[in-house]
Specification:
- By secondary structure, the protein is mainly alpha-helical.
- The chain has a domain of about 130 residues: Orthogonal Bundle (Regulator of G-protein Signalling 4, domain 2), CATH 1.10.167.10.
- About 60% of the residues lie in helices and about 0% in strands.
- The chain has 10 helices and no strands.
- Helix 5 packs antiparallel against helix 6 and helix 6 runs antiparallel to helix 7.
């Protein structure tokens, strides 16, 4: 009996064609998803590149630029002069409060002004129902032992504040706020008035970059008893 492949050679041809055809088509199927995914990956890379170019992603540009108190071009030398009249005048104006806050960040003591601002907001609570959660947050953030932003309070003031936490009133933090206010007024405020940043505002020019200053120790009210602040502008 003769070999059927010799009688029907087309069988061998079709078989040989099927196999290569499958090999050609298989990679083509795999390549389609890759082509579709490439634009997505490219877009992700582009978005990441844009994000990295934003200022907030550069740590060196974060709090170190506290000397840049002229960010708001509306601050005139005449307005800056008023900030030197009194500490209360400085804090009563939004631009002054912002400038002083940035200055405290260079000294790593911004917890004082943040506590003062939190107390001001607390006293403006619209209902007694809002007092308890706000009071708890302020106490846990700034006053209790080992709080993340603990302010320097004497034992008596801290104790009185702690005892009123059960039923907080709008006056709960008045004593603590006054203590911190005096510390800033007699310690940080005079240095702010002597800083290169503030002098730059008085002269109507952009302030130079202020060096970061670390506190050697924490101050208490007793350090300043009987001492009048030096408000001389150099």
């Amino acid at each position: 009996m003769e070999n059927p492949l010799l009688l029907f050679p087309q069988l061998n041809i079709s078989a040989s064609k099927d196999k290569p055809y499958y090999k050609v088509m298989k990679p083509a199927i795999k390549e389609e998803p890759n082509k579709a995914s490439k634009p997505g990956a490219k877009q992700k890379r582009n978005r990441l590149s844009l994000l990295l170019q934003k200022p907030e992603f550069h740590e060196s540009d974060h709090l170190g630029k506290a000397g840049n108190l002229t960010k708001a071009a509306s601050v005139s030398p005449e307005e800056a002069v008023k900030w030197g009249e009194s500490f209360d005048k400085l804090l009563s104006e939004k631009a002054g409060l912002d400038a002083f806050t940035k200055f405290l960040k260079t000294e790593f003591s911004e917890e004082n002004i943040e506590f003062w601002i939190a107390c001001e907001d607390y006293k403006k609570s619209k209902s007694a129902h809002d007092l308890l959660p706000k009071a708890k947050t302020i106490f846990e953030t700034f006053i209790q032992k080992d709080a993340p932003k603990e302010v320097n309070l004497d034992f008596h003031t801290k104790e009185v504040t702690s005892q009123s936490m059960g039923q907080p009133l709008r006056s709960t933090f008045d004593a603590a706020q006054s203590t911190v206010y005096r510390l800033m007024e007699q310690d940080s405020y005079p240095r702010f008035l002597r800083s290169a940043a503030y002098r730059g505002l008085l002269q109507g020019r952009p302030a130079a970059r202020a060096p970061l200053r670390r506190r050697s120790r924490s101050f208490t009210v007793s350090d300043f008893q009987g001492v009048r602040p030096d408000l001389t502008v150099w």
